[in-house]
Amino acid sequence: MDPIAKTPREYTCFRISPGDTNRLAIIFDPIGENIPFISCVEIYDVGGKTPPNMHTYANEMFFILKGEGIAYCDGKALPFKAGDAFLAPAGKEHVVANTGPGRLYALCTMVPNEGFAELIRNGTPMPLDDEDYAVLSRLL
């Protein structure tokens, strides 16, 4: 496999379900790059959160790029802000909630994929806007 480089303009973004308050911008995944994990940027609207979910055998790591919130995992409340990271271990139900005044941006990596890429890509394609590109471009 050759090395792969992408810019934020090449990410594909989806909303999994119509009522969701977060979008997922896929960076690398098994469908696009034939790799065993997925890495994406989750973008949460103000007041947004994920529905409660868990993964049977995948571990999900979140690194907070911008914003603040609370992760609920295994009965624990874990407040976070930009620069913090947390891990949702396999088999543990978790929720990520944006509690800040602006959007929340989190780099998310799930190893192994456990069908997450397919779930995301079966959602509704969504555009990234100027605010998203401004946040993601600072990472380059």
SSE layout:
Elements: E1 12-15, E2 22-28, H1 30-33, E3 38-44, E4 59-66, E5 68-73, E6 76-81, E7 85-88, E8 94-98, E9 104-111, H2 116-121, E10 124-125, H3 130-137
Antiparallel strand pairs: 1-2, 1-10, 2-3, 3-9, 4-7, 4-9, 5-6, 5-8
How does this structure look, described?
This protein has helices spanning 30-33, 116-121, 130-137, and strands spanning 12-15, 22-28, 38-44, 59-66, 68-73, 76-81, 85-88, 94-98, 104-111, 124-125. It has 140 residues and is mainly β. It has one domain: Jelly Rolls (Sandwich). A seven-stranded antiparallel β-sheet has the order 7-4-9-3-2-1-10. A three-stranded antiparallel β-sheet has the order 6-5-8, with no helix packed on it. The longest helix is centred in the C-terminal third of the chain and has 8 residues, at 130-137. The radius of gyration is 14 Å and the shape is globular. The chain starts with 11 loop residues before the first strand and ends with a helix.
Q: Which keywords apply here?
A:
140 residues, mainly beta, Jelly Rolls, 7-stranded antiparallel beta sheet, 3 helices
Please state the second-level CATH architecture.
Answer: Sandwich
Shape: globular
- Domain count, please report it: 1
Number of strands: 10
In summary, what is this structure?
With about 140 residues, the protein is mainly beta. The protein has one domain: Jelly Rolls (Sandwich). About 15% of the residues lie in helices and about 40% in strands.
